[in-house]
Amino acid sequence: MKKIIIAVVITVVLVGATYKLAVDTEAGQNFLLDRALSARMVQPPVSEFLGLEVMVCGSSSPLPDPSRAQACIMVRAGNRIFLVDAGSGSAEVLRLEGVPMQLIGTILLTHFHSDHISAIADVNLGSWVAGRPARLQIVGPEGVNSVVAGFNLAYGLDRSYRTAHHGEDFLPSVLGALQAQTITPGVIYAEDELTITAFEVDHAPISPAVGYRFDYMGRSVVVTGDTIVTKGIEVAAKDADLLLTDALSHDLINAMSEGAAAGGMDRGATILKDIMDYHADTKNIGKMAAAAGVGQVAFYHLVPPVQNVVMENIFMRGVPSDTILTHDGMRFLLPAGSDVLEIVEKN
Ligand SMILES: [Zn+2]
Ligand SMILES: [Zn+2]
């Protein structure tokens, strides 16, 4: 027994001394820094994955959550990366998850609420600096021109500083400005086996508002953007492998609204009541998805963002048990020519 106590004491002293040496001395700090840098600062390899890769780059809505960015879904088909929306914090998620930013060529906007567009400038800068070979395309329904003109104006000085500092060869000014493209529902992209179809959703009074469906090498993913559950989504999501849908828990939002009113937060109570009529009720999604023949349903744009297991259990009340509640960094891999759907947890 005495020997064990001595061994434990010696181990504790050695661990403590090593920790102090590593953290408090320059040599120790440099050693740890080198190890961390060589592990993290590595050019990501070009993916050889054949199929659709989907990553949640923002699972939240405007209600604040320190661990979730606002609306953003990444869809990758080979070396083409599309984002559906770019809400606040989503550029950081993309970079922290090691997404090759230079391959992001297009952001598809579902509508122009701030929680879907506020990180456009960050994605633009991140992809420009990473070496994106063409201007970043901002695609969306009527109104996208004014959004893009506004960002280009607001960030004009920033772009000029970057080019002046790093040089026209390294950061060509022409590639720093966003390019707008207005679309209407229907097929909006069909190239090299990838088809993207925009479809109308119901986010009234916000109009136009659309969702997007991606079909690539026999695999398909549908992203709704903000909407209530509609027949149109059922049609657009017909036999899709994966449906990423807006999701609002009436039980949670009701309770929060009543709590806010009881606490004297009248404005908060009003807003919480108002938002209940233009998002997808979690309890209506499963039936629609089953009628559409969707393979896997996953909730994102969580209203409210789920922060603990109690909230999660309430959020998932009345929801089919195989439904996935996403979090930032969650990936879905859909290999070409199969019906496999692999879920990869955050890095
Ligand atoms: Zn939203
Ligand atoms: Zn919205």
UniProtKB/TrEMBL annotation:
<protein>
    <submittedName>
        <fullName>Ribonuclease Z</fullName>
        <ecNumber>3.1.26.11</ecNumber>
    </submittedName>
</protein>
<dbReference type="InterPro" id="IPR036866">
    <property type="entry name" value="RibonucZ/Hydroxyglut_hydro"/>
</dbReference>
<feature type="domain" description="Metallo-beta-lactamase">
    <location>
        <begin position="69"/>
        <end position="265"/>
    </location>
</feature>
<dbReference type="InterPro" id="IPR044094">
    <property type="entry name" value="AtsA-like_MBL-fold"/>
</dbReference>
<dbReference type="GO" id="GO:0042781">
    <property type="term" value="F:3'-tRNA processing endoribonuclease activity"/>
</dbReference>
<dbReference type="InterPro" id="IPR001279">
    <property type="entry name" value="Metallo-B-lactamas"/>
</dbReference>
<dbReference type="Pfam" id="PF12706">
    <property type="entry name" value="Lactamase_B_2"/>
</dbReference>
<keyword id="KW-0378">Hydrolase</keyword>
